[in-house]
C-alpha cells in the first residue's frame, strides 16, 4: 500500500509484478477492488499499478468539485511520481473516460489504451436524457449508499450463482463517501472529448459487454473515430465485465497487450 500527494490530495495506489508499466483504473463509486480478478493474471507479465481515484477507496476525499480532467491530472502526476514513462492504460466505465481524457491530452504517455464499458462523452441532448439524469441524481441524493449498492448488485449480477458478487457489490458500495460519490457523478455529466479522439494514436482496445448500460452500437460509432482501435464484444456480460467474465476478459486483454508490445505505433 503506497500514497503520493498531488494538488493537496493524498492518493492511494498499489503495485504488483515487474516489467512494462500498466495502469488499472476503476469506475465510479468503486476502488482498486474492481480489479481483483485481473491483478494476478496481469502481474505475471507486467508492473501493475492500481490507483484509487480522488474521492474513492483509500484516497483522500476533498470537499470540492471533481472533474474528469482533474482525475486525469492526478494520474499524470502518478506516472511522473513513479517515473513510469509510457504505460498500458486499462479503464473501466469512469476509468475509461479518464483514459480518453489522458489519451487526448497526453498521447505520448500511453503505450496502449483499453476502454471497458465506457464512452468518450456523456452529453445530455434530448429531454429524455435530462429526465433520466434528473431521476438518477434525485435518487442518489435520497437513497442510502447501502440501498444503491443492493440495487446495483442485482442489476449487475442477476444470476442465482452470482450471489457472492451481489453481496460484495452491496458491501463495497455502502463504504463510499456519499458527498465524494455525488461529486464524481457530477464530474461525468456533460463531460466529453469525442471531437478530439483522432489524437489517441496508440493501439486501442474497446471492450463492450453485450448487455452493458449503453448499446454496442454506441461503441461501434466511436471506435471509427479512433486511429488504431478495435472493438471486442463479450457475451453474457453486463457493466462489470472484469468481474462477471474474468477469464474471457483477461485472455482478450493479454492478447491485445502482447500485440501492442510487439508492434508499438510507429512514430
From TrEMBL:
<protein>
    <submittedName>
        <fullName>Alpha/beta hydrolase</fullName>
    </submittedName>
</protein>
<feature type="domain" description="AB hydrolase-1">
    <location>
        <begin position="21"/>
        <end position="244"/>
    </location>
</feature>
<dbReference type="Pfam" id="PF00561">
    <property type="entry name" value="Abhydrolase_1"/>
</dbReference>
<dbReference type="InterPro" id="IPR050266">
    <property type="entry name" value="AB_hydrolase_sf"/>
</dbReference>
<keyword id="KW-0378">Hydrolase</keyword>
<dbReference type="InterPro" id="IPR029058">
    <property type="entry name" value="AB_hydrolase_fold"/>
</dbReference>
<dbReference type="GO" id="GO:0016020">
    <property type="term" value="C:membrane"/>
</dbReference>
<dbReference type="InterPro" id="IPR000073">
    <property type="entry name" value="AB_hydrolase_1"/>
</dbReference>
<dbReference type="GO" id="GO:0016787">
    <property type="term" value="F:hydrolase activity"/>
</dbReference>
Amino acid at each position: 500500500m503506497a500514497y503520493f500527494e498531488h494538488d493537496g490530495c493524498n492518493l492511494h495506489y498499489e503495485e504488483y509484478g515487474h516489467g512494462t508499466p500498466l495502469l488499472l483504473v476503476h469506475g465510479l463509486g468503486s476502488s482498486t477492488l474492481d480489479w481483483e480478478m485481473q491483478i494476478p493474471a496481469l502481474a505475471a507479465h507486467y508492473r501493475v499499478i492500481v490507483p484509487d481515484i480522488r474521492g474513492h477507496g483509500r484516497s483522500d476525499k476533498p470537499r470540492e468539485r471533481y472533474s474528469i480532467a482533474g482525475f486525469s491530472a492526478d494520474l499524470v502526476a502518478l506516472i511522473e511520481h513513479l517515473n513510469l514513462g509510457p504505460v498500458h492504460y486499462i479503464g473501466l466505465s469512469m476509468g475509461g473516460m479518464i483514459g480518453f481524457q489522458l489519451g487526448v491530452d497526453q498521447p505520448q504517455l500511453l503505450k496502449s489504451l483499453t476502454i471497458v464499458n465506457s464512452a468518450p462523452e456523456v452529453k445530455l441532448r434530448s429531454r429524455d436524457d435530462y429526465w433520466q439524469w434528473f431521476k438518477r441524481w434525485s435518487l442518489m441524493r435520497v437513497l442510502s449508499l447501502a440501498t444503491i449498492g443492493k440495487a446495483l448488485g442485482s442489476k449487475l449480477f442477476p444470476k442465482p450463482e452470482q450471489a457472492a458478487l451481489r453481496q460484495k457489490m452491496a458491501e463495497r458500495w455502502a463504504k463510499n463517501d456519499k458527498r465524494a460519490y455525488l461529486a464524481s457523478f457530477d464530474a461525468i455529466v456533460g463531460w466529453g472529448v469525442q471531437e478530439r479522439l483522432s489524437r489517441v494514436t496508440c493501439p486501442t482496445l474497446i471492450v463492450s459487454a453485450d448487455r452493458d448500460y449503453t448499446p454496442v452500437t454506441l461503441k461501434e460509432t466511436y471506435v471509427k473515430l479512433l486511429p488504431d482501435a478495435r472493438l471486442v464484444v463479450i457475451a453474457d456480460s453486463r457493466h462489470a465485465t472484469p468481474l462477471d467474465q474474468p477469464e474471457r476478459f483477461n485472455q482478450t486483454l493479454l492478447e491485445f497487450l502482447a500485440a501492442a508490445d510487439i508492434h508499438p505505433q510507429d512514430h
